[in-house]
C-alpha cells in the first residue's frame, strides 16, 4: 500500500494553509493566513474562492458539521465551524456566509470539534480552557481550565469524554462531573495534535519530540515511533480505523493502526499543519506551510486468497494475478474503488455508487447492483452470502446480487462497526452492542430477525472481539469471543428458553480466527500460538480438551501480532512490524472433521491409526460422544488411555432401554439435568432418582421421590448407608422429617429395584425394535 501524491505547480494560497476539511468525498475546503476560503472540486480539478475573510481574521482550525447518521437525503454537510486567532469561532455555511461569530477564548482558539451526533462543539484555546458549546453556539460549560495552551482536542467514541493536550501530558475528561479523569505523560516535548478513532477506540498523539504514538483508551502505550528530523505537526485516523496519516516538514506518512509504516512520501510542502481524510477513507488532504494543499490517494492495497492476488493499481483499476500460472486480469470500474474483500472464491468490490461481485472462476462478467448509500465502511463474506455496512444500515446480499435481509437493533450505529465487532456465517449474523459492550446481538441471516426466542447473548465482562464458526449445522453454530480480561470464551448461538452456558476456552488470548473449511479455531495466547482442533470438546468431555490442542512457541511473532486469515490449513499472522508470517497446521484434523460430518466413522478410525497422534484420537473421542457413536468413542478413549471412560461406555452398552442409554451418554458429557429430563419423560422415575443418588445429589433425589410418591425409602436407605460410611449423623431437616418412624428393609428395597429393572427391560423389548442410539454392538 502506498500514497499517490498530487500537488499543483503553483500554490492557490499566498500564505500558509492552516486547515482543510472535506465536505463530500470529492469536495474540500481550505483556509489560509491570506484570509481566503477556497473550495477544491476534485472531479473537475477546479478551485474557487468561497469567501474572503476580514483582514484581522486568521483561521486556525476547521471542522464540518457531521452528516446525520442514517438520513440518506443529506449527502453533504451544510456548515462548518472555523476557529480563529482573535479568540472567536465562526459558524459558516458552505456558501461562505458567516452565520454566527462567538467570543470564546482569550487568545487564539486553537481547535474546534463537533461531536459525532452534531449536538455539541468543543473548543480549546491559548488561555488553557476547554469549553463545550451547543449546536447554535451557546456556552454549555467550561469543562476544564489549565495554565498552558491546549493545542488539540478530540471527542471519545461515545461523545461522553473529551481528550485534550496539556503540555507533555494527555488528559481524558468525561463530561459528567465528578467522574474519574485520566491523565498521563505521553511525550517528551509539547504535544501538538491528537486524534481518537470511534471504530477501534485508539488514540493518536504527535509532539515536538518528533515522535508519534498510538495509545489505547486507558492510556496504555501500543506504539511509539522513532524520532523524526522535525516535530510531527499533524496526525489523523482514517474513518474505518485501519490506517492513519502523519504529517511533518516535507513529510507525509501512511501507517497501519498498530503503528508500522506502509509508505513514506517527501512532498515539497513545508510543514503539514493539518491532515484530514475523505469521508470514504480513500484519500487525504494536507494543509501545507508553503501555501499548497497536498492530496494523496491510497493505492496498491492488496487482497489475497488461495492462488489469487488482487491489487488496486489505480483509483478505478484492479489487477488480478493467479500465482499458479501467472495469468493476469485487469478489472476496470466506472467509479473509484472504496472497499473490497476477497474470500470464498468471490471478490466483492464497492465503488462510490455500485457493488461488483466477481467469481474467481470468471473475472469477465461481474454481477453489478446499485448501492443505497455510497460510503461502504465494511464488507464481510461467508460461503453463501456477504454483508455490506454503510452509514445507513447493514445489508446482506447473496453472491447472485439478491438482497436478503437488513438486521436492525436499538441504538444501532453502523459507523463504528468493524471486522472485530461483526461476524457472519452461512446462517447467523453476530453484532457486538456498542451501548452495552457485554452484549452480542444474534440475527438469522436469511430474515434479519433476532435468532431463537430473541434473547441476547450476555457476558459478565465487556467483549472485545467476536467470531462465528463457519461450518456445520445451524443448531450447532458457536460464537467465540475475547473479553476485556483477554479470556477466550465459546457459547452456542441457539438460545431457546434455557440459558446457554458460556465456557472459557483459554486465557490471555489476543486475537482469534476460525478456519473457513471446518470448525477449527486458532488464537495467539500470551507467548503461544494455539489451535483448538475441536472446540466443541468443552461441551462433551472437558477433561480431554488439553489433549485436543496444538501449541507452539509464538515468541518469533514479536509483540502484539494479529491473525489476518485462516484459510484451509494455512494461518497468516501479521507481526507488529507489518511483516506477514504463514504457518501451516496439520491437514489431518480437517480431514477428520470431514469424515465425521458425513458419518464415516470407520474411515475416521483408520485415519487416526495411520496418523498415530494423541490429539487426533482425543478429537475423535469427543466427536464420537457428541454424535452418540459410543463404539467409536470406546476405541478412541482406549487409544488415549482413558480406561475409566472405556469402562463407563461399556456399562452404558449393557443398559436395558434406549432412554437409559441416552441419559447416561448425556451424563457422560456432564448434562445432568438433560439426562434426568430424558428419564422422567420416558416414565423411568426410579432411574432418574438413582442417577441423583449416584452423584450424591441428595436434595434432588428426595425431591423427585416425594414428588412422584415412589422410592422414598430407597433414597433414605442410600442416604443412611452413605452417612454410616463416613461416620456422620443426619442433619438435613427434610431427611429427618421423612425418616421418622420409617424402618429400612434392604431386602425389600433390593426387590423393588430388581422389579424396576425388569419392568424397563420388558418395556424396551415389547416396544418395536428400534435402532440403539448410536450404540452398535
Automatic annotation (TrEMBL):
Pfam families per UniProt: Beta-prop_IFT80_2nd, TPR_IFT80_172, WD40
Repeat region (WD), residues: 102-134, 184-216
Domain IFT80 second beta-propeller: start-end pairs: 300-588
Main location: other
Gene: IFT80
Region of interest (Disordered), residue spans: 758-777
Keywords annotated in UniProt: Cell projection, Cilium, WD repeat
Keyword Transmembrane helix: no
Subcellular location(s) of the protein: Cell projection, Cilium
Gene3D superfamilies tied to this protein: 1.25.40.470, YVTN repeat-like/Quinoprotein amine dehydrogenase
Organism: Balaenoptera acutorostrata
Protein name: Intraflagellar transport protein 80 homolog isoform X2
Domain IFT80/172/WDR35 TPR stretches: 616-762
SMART domains: WD40
